What does this fold into?
Amino acid sequence: MSGFREHFREARLVNRERRKLYAELTKNKSRFVSNILIFSEFLLYPVACYFDIRAKKFNKIGIPIVSNDFVPLGNLPSFTEKPTYRNILSKNDLVEISKKMKRLRKDARADLKFFRFYEVNKLITGSIAEIESIETGKGVHIAMLKHILESAAYAAKNAFEYSKLNNNKLNRFAAHFINTQLIGTILSPQIDREANRIQQIGCGIVVNDLPEIPYKI
It folds into this structure.
């Protein structure tokens, strides 16, 4: 079991270690992106504390919500692995993606209001497929946004199992947790665009730094 704070601790360690490695590969051009990632983790740490603390009462009775909703970062690709795509998200792409994510957040909120976690997982899974289609079609990585979506879909997948317990307090907490994760879809495409500039020179920053998440039901 990982937990939200532990997930951020792991990510901070990875990004601090790889900041130096990527900087050597890119003649320091990658440092800005590494610093954004590290600073983001610092800013969001209080949010992680809040959810870990709120989850404790459920964890104590054997429900591993939050504590089991993050994938460890132990098996990441090598930092030397080259990115598959080298293009940069255009401003038009960002606008279109932002519209898609706004619709997703609205639709997810509507389903989460009634604890329809299965439907939310399917909804987010569909959005991931759309993002992957953009990646392939445009030859561009949208890795951070995809990671946020996969993480939220994974939480919805687990929440679907927890919902079988018919515990309204647990369901409300799970819905709040997933909604909060989806807020990350607002700024993550901007992080992807900055990372694209480094991926363009053959460095797989961000792409190499995120784990595979088994988010599908």
